[in-house]
Amino acid sequence: xxxxxxxxxxxxxxxxxxxxxxxxxxxxxxxxxxxxxxxxxxxxxxxxxxxxxxxxxxxxxxxxxxxxxxxxxxxxxxxxxxxxxxxxxxxxxxxxxxxxxxxxxxxxxxxxxxxxxxxxxxxxxxxxxxxxxxxxxxxxxxxxxxxxxxxxxxxxxxxxxxxxxxxxxxxxxxxxxxxxxxxxxxxxxxxxxxxxxxxxxxxxxxxxxxxxxxxxxxxxxxxxxxxxxxxxxxxxxxxxxxxxxxxxxxxxxxxxxxxxxxxxxxxxxxxxxxxxxxxxxxxxxxxxxxxxxxxxxxxxxxxxxxxxxxxxxxxxxxxxxxxxxxxxxxxxxxxxxxxxxxxxxxxxxxxxxxxxxxxxxxxxxxxxxxxxxxxxxxxxxxxxxxxxxxxxxxxxxxxxxxxxxxxxxxxxxxxxxxxxxxxxxxxxxxxxxxxxxxxxxxxxxxxxxxxxxxxxxxxxxxxxxxxxxxxxxxxxxxxxxxxxxxxxxxxxxxxxxxxxxxxxxxxxxxxxxxxxxxxxxxxxxxxxxxxxxxxxxxxxxxxxxxxxxxxxxxxxxxxxxxxxxxxxxxxxxxxxxxxxxxxxxxxxxxxxxxxxxxxxxxxxxxxxxxxxxxxxxxxxxxxxxxxxxxxxxxxxxxxxxxxxxxxxxxxxxxxxxxxxxxxxxxxxxxxxxxxxxxxxxxxxxxxxxxxxxxxxxxxxxxxxxxxxxxxxxxxxxxxxxxx
Length: 723
Ligand SMILES: *[C@@H]1O[C@H](CO)[C@@H](O)[C@H](O)[C@H]1NC(C)=O
Ligand SMILES: *[C@@H]1O[C@H](CO)[C@@H](O)[C@H](O)[C@H]1NC(C)=O
Ligand SMILES: *[C@@H]1O[C@H](CO)[C@@H](O)[C@H](O)[C@H]1NC(C)=O
Ligand SMILES: *[C@@H]1O[C@H](CO)[C@@H](O)[C@H](O)[C@H]1NC(C)=O
Ligand SMILES: *[C@@H]1O[C@H](CO)[C@@H](O)[C@H](O)[C@H]1NC(C)=O
Ligand SMILES: *[C@@H]1O[C@H](CO)[C@@H](O)[C@H](O)[C@H]1NC(C)=O
Ligand SMILES: *[C@@H]1O[C@H](CO)[C@@H](O)[C@H](O)[C@H]1NC(C)=O
Ligand SMILES: *[C@@H]1O[C@H](CO)[C@@H](O)[C@H](O)[C@H]1NC(C)=O
Ligand SMILES: *[C@@H]1O[C@H](CO)[C@@H](O)[C@H](O)[C@H]1NC(C)=O
Ligand SMILES: *[C@@H]1O[C@H](CO)[C@@H](O)[C@H](O)[C@H]1NC(C)=O
Ligand SMILES: *[C@@H]1O[C@H](CO)[C@@H](O)[C@H](O)[C@H]1NC(C)=O
Ligand SMILES: *[C@@H]1O[C@H](CO)[C@@H](O)[C@H](O)[C@H]1NC(C)=O
Fold this sequence. Notes:
alpha+beta; eight-stranded antiparallel sheet; seven-stranded antiparallel sheet; 22 helices; 21% strand; disordered N terminus; Glycogen debranching enzyme; signal
């Protein structure tokens, strides 16, 4: 696994060298299509560029105030894109259907655009779109995916400085081209439509609305911006995992689409760029199958993280803003610059970074041999970090973690005010990063009880291995801090509900919300215990956000805790919530809900955690994956020759945990077809039970068809040896 970078560079050199002649790529392009009605997603990549095209066409049952006909093109380079929102000319929503049809000349749904010239070649995709009745292009947005998301997810925000720059050109043979020069004054995005058949001309009534007769049109979407170099399926996977390419192409193709030589992307189409947490959770869950070594997936992911560390305070970056939107944000601050911007509002990301470093540089045999070379590299991505080495940046991050965890870990410091909290002025800070995701809480359970102590354990092992030459002391100190967090944080989040109260709360939840499903309260046969989402929540009458959740998975996956009383009781309640059906527990036929507000005892929880909420009663693929791997790791401790935890020897408990593990896998297996989606919701049908539906059916926050961390089932599989 040595020559990836060389191979990738060679591919680029070849493309550039041959550009002016035939611009042929050495390898065949990759194309795949994913259907997720009302969305169909088309992917195209070759050595020149990569693109995703999403076609939305309303279904008879769609909510027509949020689902309309839309053509969207997304490019990883610059997190760029173009969108065209259509409406039926007759004004009757739902009466216009759109779809891509294969080209009659190439037979493909998408073909590449490549035109050399200028500093950057013009690249993009072309295809054919069919309208079954006459249509109006109501709104085009050209430039950044972030601009498109501001429109689709926010209160339909549009910026005149961006929208007014769109120029429409009429083609002589019929058809139109829309183009926009970016705020950088260099890049242009173009989206054009031309009728394929005679007699279906486009009438141009005025500058803002374009009218299409029913028929088939060729569309071209392109831009001239520096492109990323994609890692092929062969390049992204470790030698030992190459078999997956044949076995699971439906997962390895999207993995390749989201992997580039200098970063891993979070999801397609909405998060088609760097996201710290997403890439790290994915690396940890796919540890064994990702390619190590120079030019491989591991170093692409870790390099991207270190490049983006805030050198002032050691924070790891959550999200990057690049391309046209970066110029836009710079202008908002009165600066004329195309420099990237980084968002440091997440708190969990800081602790994940050392965990990932330890996973690669200590546990991975190839990574072990790469420490000196890799850490000696200088940062080039964030202009603020110019001159710093990767080692400097890793050291700053570890220093931040040590500093911020010190108050709670210090003698007598185990009080609520010393727990780790969201940053001042931020309402989000970990993976439940929607406005209501933590129920207004400011002290998250996952960060304090799992992610921070695991980060500290990792710093300890990195220091032991000499990773931080100026801080050999961290070997012991970080381990001591970790022990305090492992042992002393859990009880702050404990929720205990008597059997009687539990039955009443769950019955009320179902009746107050008129749910069609049964409360299943006959399943409550004892008192209920769980760990709430966060402290300092919004409720007036309680501090703890009493929402049952799946975040136990972090502790099972990231830590091997040692207080036996605590571990036995903790793993016991996790197993209970997996075995109990929602709304008593978390499990339904469509997966574990990441939140169950039934025990909230304040109506704000059932209003804010619904099946229309991003972090409500919905299923996230990667949470299933981490829970499965986490339980596997804990059960794996029972197979050790010594030091096995007490719960392994408690026969009833051990067998309950095993049942929960297999129950979870049965649910995972039943949902194979949707597992790689980012998140999904449900409807309840009499006789059928819970049925999965796209979250976009209920919410303007549509799910990504593929999310990096939902591809982790490539590596996480049922362990049949656990019986
Ligand atoms: C359709 O979506 C709108 C906007 O989100 C919402 O207010 C409305 O309740 C939805 N209608 C149905 C039938 O779900
Ligand atoms: C029709 O569709 C548009 C655009 O999708 C939407 O804004 C509008 O609310 C819809 N009208 C109705 C009556 O659903
Ligand atoms: C176009 O498709 C929509 C949605 O399927 C349908 O309601 C409409 O009748 C179709 N229009 C024509 C002219 O076929
Ligand atoms: C378009 O072509 C693909 C393969 O190239 C094929 O699988 C698909 O069925 C074709 N679609 C139609 C509508 O013919
Ligand atoms: C782009 O050109 C405009 C008009 O000449 C100028 O005001 C602006 O500063 C330029 N933008 C950048 C990012 O250089
Ligand atoms: C442009 O066309 C739309 C739709 O046909 C119409 O509502 C609007 O008034 C027109 N605008 C101008 C400036 O003519
Ligand atoms: C980096 O951290 C410092 C100190 O917390 C902060 O002032 C600065 O805004 C951060 N940088 C960015 C780009 O957010
Ligand atoms: C950690 O704390 C020390 C001592 O207060 C300080 O010098 C250092 O700058 C801090 N480092 C970070 C990254 O916050
Ligand atoms: C939850 O819902 C209530 C209304 O029921 C609202 O006032 C509150 O702001 C929402 N958000 C949070 C985080 O609790
Ligand atoms: C839960 O209760 C239902 C009846 O409401 C019953 O059919 C089911 O077997 C129970 N499940 C468990 C795990 O106890
Ligand atoms: C283990 O945790 C329990 C609470 O879960 C606590 O009562 C006990 O003191 C702890 N034991 C040790 C050795 O820390
Ligand atoms: C915990 O133990 C299991 C089983 O031995 C192992 O797979 C896992 O890597 C360990 N986790 C940690 C954080 O050391």
